[in-house]
What we know:
The complex is a heterodimer.
Chain A: H1 2-10, H2 13-31, H3 49-60, E1 67-72, H4 76-82, E2 86-93, E3 103-104, E4 118-124, H5 133-143, E5 144-155, E6 170-172, H6 174-182, E7 190-195, H7 198-206, H8 215-218, E8 228-234
Chain B: H1 2-10, H2 13-31, H3 49-60, E1 67-72, H4 76-82, E2 86-93, E3 103-104, E4 118-124, H5 133-143, E5 144-155, E6 172-174, H6 176-184, E7 192-197, H7 200-208, H8 217-220, E8 230-236
Amino acid sequence: xxxxxxxxxxxxxxxxxxxxxxxxxxxxxxxxxxxxxxxxxxxxxxxxxxxxxxxxxxxxxxxxxxxxxxxxxxxxxxxxxxxxxxxxxxxxxxxxxxxxxxxxxxxxxxxxxxxxxxxxxxxxxxxxxxxxxxxxxxxxxxxxxxxxxxxxxxxxxxxxxxxxxxxxxxxxxxxxxxxxxxxxxxxxxxxxxxxxxxxxxxxxxxxxxxxxxxxxxxxxxxxxxxxxxxxxxxxxxxxxx
Amino acid sequence: xxxxxxxxxxxxxxxxxxxxxxxxxxxxxxxxxxxxxxxxxxxxxxxxxxxxxxxxxxxxxxxxxxxxxxxxxxxxxxxxxxxxxxxxxxxxxxxxxxxxxxxxxxxxxxxxxxxxxxxxxxxxxxxxxxxxxxxxxxxxxxxxxxxxxxxxxxxxxxxxxxxxxxxxxxxxxxxxxxxxxxxxxxxxxxxxxxxxxxxxxxxxxxxxxxxxxxxxxxxxxxxxxxxxxxxxxxxxxxxxxxxxx
Lengths: 241, 245
């Protein structure tokens, strides 16, 4: 790289400029594409890139997925990561049209969900769809048993959810996710971790699947390009005043 | 397409699958890069891509930039788009660092700014840095004069700003949906216009730090609601303000 820079220094300025212009044109041609490589975010060929991080985070905390567990939409991750540690499984959905749902409720209001009920709540890629996320976090805290754990993931650099599927409101950063939960949970009980880098972010937008990429593409972390932000919070055993 | 059909007729399945994988490998090599071309949003190559939308939005509403104007960080856009229509520009900052700063403080609890003071507020890419966004929107409404205009832009997809210049920290990215709802809580809905800009090519160009100068208008103009890069909002405070609760 330095050899190349020196080689360029000898060239007269107009030539140097022309070389640079053509280099940029070439980069534009190669790197930028108008259409996604797949229109289903990668599900067609495997799993979308963000699943690498979400599932990686849940693997790291699989030990927390036990007892009475609550998941949203379906029970996939509770079964996958909790296995036989799960004694009772509830699925919450906003509307009654989901056959798996055992609780139909809006997390931002959530009055009908029992308090101090769950040992573990799996809340993956959900909070950003709720306009009043602060109320949803208060509900999460209320329905957790003392000592219970909530595992949360949220998208960072990501495409929008199609308008007809859901309402898409927020992208959080590690800073805001931590601060939002610290308003309800004690600071020392909240851990936040971000995942992603520029390659992963662009791969996710273009619709590459995890199976198209290598671990060494996905694992390096660059805080400028968080693809997924994950949080683990524990409700203290003694209620805070 | 016909070549594809011919190949799939002749070749056995494992070979086809292998070929398909090779195609993805080539795509990965060509399209995906480990590092951005310019780590500074494109300033190193020209103007960052989002500036195209922000400046077009302000140019389209330049008649609103007049009288007593409030801008954030510096007075660049107020002077550029307001020109001779501008009587006075106040510059708001979180800390007193900026040389042009006339007001210091947190926008969410800004009792130091007088009410009904501004004909126009130019608020570009500021909202992500305010933790209490709802409080900030209430302040913006309060300090606008009746019939005053709010010109606001906010980012969604793009590289995060973590430099913490003058204490600013980035908390949020917005969508057209959240921005509309935030402002409709305070402004009358009929007075709020929201538009989003961006598409897949632009989103990736922005992440990699391509500049406006690298792209053509026909790359920048098409809008795909799946990839919002910049969201713009114009809101007008009504002449007779409804009582706020």
